[in-house]
Amino acid sequence: MYSTSYLLFQSITAVALGDALGVPFQCEKRQDLLENPIHAMIGHKENDVPAGTWSDDTSLTLASLVSLTQGYNLYDLMMRYSQWYHFGDYTPFGMTFGVGKTTGDAIRRFDSGIKPELCGGDSEMDNGNGALMRMMPLAFYILTSTNGYKYNDDVANLVHEYTSTTHRHPRSLIASGILTNVTIRLVYNPNKYAMLRAVKECLDYYRTKEEFAEDADLFSQLEDPHFLRQPSNLIESSPYVIDTLNSVFWCLMNSEQYSVAVTRAVNLGNDADTIGSITSMLASLLFAPVTFPREWLNELKGRNQIKVAVSSALLSKYF
Q1: Is 136 exposed, middle or buried (0-12, 13-18, 19+ CB in 10 A)?
Q2: Which sequence ranges form a coiled-coil region, renumbered to this chain (predicted)?
Q3: pTM
């Protein structure tokens, strides 16, 4: 197991790299990417921002990390999300873009005085990946504060409460639990077998809970090696939480190197930035230690913001 301080910095950087690589190709059709695949940072396409600019995925990850550096406080967490939404905090250029509808609605509820844990959307249509993109800091927070880690009621309740600030439907809570558990397990044991076991551990937990059992079955394909080995044209890369996790794990299972997994992810098209970001984060743990492509790092904007946020976290007692 590598030091958590090293892996935290590596993971945050990976979030930003996958995000920035995919930003210009958000909503791009897969057929177009098959003909002209992505391998480099490109600017001034979708959202008309410079090459290497990251979006809400990285901004919400940084806001979450900075909040958790002060301890677990959902009011503080949502206040930082609100500052990002309204004022462009935690962005490379002070400009917010790419805000998901469910996340935006949750922040406006918080602004109106709703309790943080009740701000998230709870309808079936509120199962976008806006909570998934910000789970990594919580995983490291749990990893540091828990002795003898196991995905149990205490961990699940923390994940659910944190997720519920923007997404409260059971399906989103399960998705966040899976991603959090896989992140933590990969820190302990970076291999694909451990990753699949972490998925099973989570689903076994949710299948014992009456309020989650039905939705847990919707993720059962993640336990099926045949599903994870099928052709890419059968993988949907939409913002829907199930499609997002399907895409992420498909990319990881069909790659043996960090950069291969990330380029596979963004070249799936559609929600390229979020799928690229989450895949990049997990791939940085699965294939640790990784050497990020120099040409990607050179283009990445806001690198000093990332360094400052991680340094502050590592000086706190929570990371």
Answers
A1: buried
A2: none
A3: 0.96
